[in-house]
Amino acid sequence: MGNAMNSLDPHTPPLSLGRLGFGGAGIGNLYRAIPDGQALATVLAAWDAGIRYFDTAPHYGLGLSEQRLGAVLRDKPREEFVISTKVGRVLEPDSGGGQDPEGFDVPATSRRMWDFSEGGIRRSIEDSLERLGLDHVDIAYLHDPDVHDLQAGISEALPVLEKLRAEGLVKAIGVGINSAEAALECVEAADLDLVMLAGRYTLLEQPDVPLLDRCLERSTGVVSVGAYNSGLLARPDVPEDAHYNYDQAPPEVLERARALAALCRDFGVELPTAALQFPLRHPAVVNVTAGATSPEQVATNAARMESPVPEELWAALEERRA
């Protein structure tokens, strides 16, 4: 078992994340730019809503997310919050100009370079601390090994993270990943505290591999992100132009989402409320982290997480999946 969860139930790790976390991609100008003031107000709204787990990455806006998050959190009592960032990509200065080609509305003043080496990972954390203005991060995730080179991630990067945890540089380690199959390989290969699983354990879809049960056996906590499946489940009524996996949702997926919305409505629950709370039904899931780009979105997510959902709805959903 990983140091951060040693001999404890996965739902009560020493790094208490709370039920709802704040995801920092949006304040890194994912898809569209938001003003600095709005970004900082959004982070403050998360703090005021009682959120104490914040996740970011160098990838998010070429460091902008880390800078904005740190601008707020460095003034908060350090022992009162948990922050995670990611390694695997280092930012190199780039004078080529233009806009970031990877979906963030920021100038391309840097370029991302994959680097799973020990030197690259240590440098990545040092650079993140400088942008954040903090003296340590609590959790380091290997970011997207399934996108770059899964086997290199397992054989090279994860042992480095285990080493950094043993040194006390970070309290917990994990992977941030989109593939449940790849996540399971990482869990079997390394002593991970956490898996941040994006979009693969949601109200709409659950993985066909025994990832969550295996995480429970190994006391590896799961942080669920992408609970709205790229916005598909983010509204009570599913519109024609809804996105799924960052693209236009195909007709059969729209139909499934609308059937879920109708079932939720039968029990007096809005689809996004059920979607946000669903992952926590599995005992391996220790937190659901959701992004936001405005204080209003933060308040909505916080309210949804606390809104009562009758057990009868969960039973009906379980019966539907059977």
TrEMBL record:
<feature type="domain" description="NADP-dependent oxidoreductase">
    <location>
        <begin position="19"/>
        <end position="319"/>
    </location>
</feature>
<dbReference type="InterPro" id="IPR044477">
    <property type="entry name" value="FDH-like"/>
</dbReference>
<dbReference type="InterPro" id="IPR020471">
    <property type="entry name" value="AKR"/>
</dbReference>
<protein>
    <submittedName>
        <fullName>Aldo/keto reductase</fullName>
    </submittedName>
</protein>
<dbReference type="InterPro" id="IPR023210">
    <property type="entry name" value="NADP_OxRdtase_dom"/>
</dbReference>
<dbReference type="Pfam" id="PF00248">
    <property type="entry name" value="Aldo_ket_red"/>
</dbReference>
<dbReference type="InterPro" id="IPR036812">
    <property type="entry name" value="NAD(P)_OxRdtase_dom_sf"/>
</dbReference>
